[in-house]
Amino acid sequence: MTEHAWLWSVLWDLLKSLILLGCVLISTAVLIYGERKVWGAVHLRRGPNVVGPWGVLQPFADFAKFILKEPIFPAGANKVVFILAPLVGVVLAMMAWAVIPVNEGWVVADINVGILYIFAVSSLGVYSIIMAGWASNSKYPFLSALRAAAQMVSYEVSIGFVIVTVLLCAGSLNMSDIVRAQDTKYGLLGWYWLPLFPMFIIFFVSALAETNRPPFDLAEAESELVAGYTVEYGASLFLLQFLTELVAVLTMSSLTAILFLGGWLSPFPWIPIIGAPSVFWFLIKAWGVVFMFSMTKAIVPRYRYDQLMRLGWKVFLPISLACVVIVAAVLKLSGH
Amino acid sequence: MTAAAVFFYIFSAIMLASAFMVIAARNPVHSVLFLILAFVNAAGLFLLAGAEFLGMILIVVYVGAVAVLFLFVVMMLDVDFAELKRGFLQVLPIGAVIGAIVAIELIMVVGAWTTAPANLIAIDAKAPAGITNTQALGQVLYTKYLLFFQASGLVLLTAMIGAIVLTLRHKVVKRQSIEEQNARTPETAVELKKVASRAGV
Fold it and tell me: Any chain A CB within 8 A of the CB of B132?
């Protein structure tokens, strides 16, 4: 047993990763169905209601459809990069989940630089889009890739500063420590959304832009660019691109829940049973943020590209930079 | 062989291979993609060396921002690969000679390096127990080396200002004024006209 201890630890990590990936993929299916139902409700439509009871099997039907279709490669495409792009995207999107704690100790890799790791992985995600756009060898995907890359690089800056304010308050780069730092006697009033309120809003809006979600889905603005960098893709490769986007939404929602909404902590720690911290609180918070993402898509019209860039560089960047200085000064003066 | 050694050889092998492919690849976009792969593997080596903060920052800054701009520029270039390859064989001998000279010089310079004994201890210095890599780095960067840190910031600022000065042209372009657009109301934006029949506006 002892000489094979490392083997067991590797197998245990593998098992944990598989369980986590399973949960993420199932959540993605729930996300597809749930979002379409939410949009349906907002638009006074029914949403998916044909496959299975209340249409709940719709995501699986979509999945089967994509898998069974014939993949088509454009004649002028750079084949290797064309195939590599969605693979890189989906691997990176899944990788981020390694450091996301869903409950006390429920995390695959509890590393010291957890938040930097997420930041690094999400900054790599832009390559999937650029590679897809370039390899398609077609006008619209290329334009869309340029837009997406510029957009993601721009909003990463403000997200970075917002995260810095949280890190200043928490005093750690470890995701679990950030949640523990929000564990005060004030319950939900002690979570960082309230003391860092403008940052919370900036983070949410930047997360929408970072994941290329409406109202910032300029990369796939169908009225201008058909479907952006996904135009030339079909079948399984398109499925992977689709999955990348949805997993990114889940990641960003979980990140919001961890950084600003106290992760697995209960909002009412003084009440006996529901006051206990548990994974359910994390799920409720994360799905709550996902719901806000969906509602935004349902009700907000798309931004113009220059408005998007202006918002990122001229509004969010100065505000978040000023907030970093203010938060640091307040912490220093109050003796933390 | 421990797991760390296995990963060291994997990262190093991929890094060297992709570094070679950067210069060997025919397509410049592939070159940049191989460069990015080399960066990522270098970050992996940093992680193995225990410099987790540096590894992550390498990815965030170089791969996530700098290399994206590289890729942008290279993708925009309209390179004729056949034209690029023509005459390759004629210049190959000269290139090989120059390359060999530079390589010999480098070997001579690097081979003559000696490390002061005091610094040999510093190479092995681990972060003090009980604090993370990031804290250890922050504690020396913002205290002992504060001046150098600020100075390097100024160097970067100068470079940025230089780039802006070189490229800024005040051309007459139509600019969007968001304030003006937001200030529009139905009263100021819409005009209702009563048009007489057969008279036009």
Answer: yes
